Amino acid sequence: MVSPIPASWLGRPSPDVAPDLIGCTLVRQFPDGSQYRGLIVETEAYAPDDPACHAYRRRTARNEVMFASPGSCYVYLIYGMYHCINVVTDLDTVPSAVLIRALELDTLPPWLDEKQRRQPHRVAAGPGKLCRALKIDRTLNGITFISKAPLWLEPRSPQFEQLITTGQHQLVQTTRIGLTQGADIPWRWYLADCPAVSKKG
DNA sequence: CTCACGATTGGA
DNA sequence: CCAATCGTGAGC
Questions:
Q1: Integer distance in angstroms from CA A78 to C1' B11?
Q2: Which residue is nearest to nucleotide C6 (CA to C1')?
Q3: Does any domain span residue A1?
Q4: What is the CATH number of the domain that holds A122?
């Protein structure tokens, strides 16, 4: 029986939490009890004083959740058609979050079409795609990852931890994707040689 | 109140 | 390379 990751573990600066979340599992549970689990293989950190952070200028209705306690869920709409999901980190009132950019799903949800099934590793390869695959939208904005349903996080398995320790799994740190500001800050991490990572580099 | 644009994606 | 599509927020 695995316990969800606690708020205390998430209550650190996002650039510290983001690499640690690689190898952890995001679990999505629906009202009928069905669950889908995804290994987190790519993350990005956003923090105060970071020009790319939604809360960089001021506190607004949209970024409100970024100021909430660690373990809160921040979901926003991007380009009018995709959602992105973040884990709020750091101390209460410090606007800080980790964007989950890619997952390796253990089971493909039945609502995926045939085209998506042809490339199972790519189904959740990207922040918009993973939200679509797990039916994550703004109705989940502001919920917590700390209790269970509908969404929670589980720590790395001992096996994954071992693979990191022995270097059989490599964490790569690079610059973030798709930004016009703060593009030079190296706050993106991904699992090397993982087919579910959104992009190389 | 208006309007340019975005932490994206898939198709030409 | 480019369009889709709409909530957000900076600026008038």
A1: 19
A2: A80
A3: no
A4: 3.10.300.10
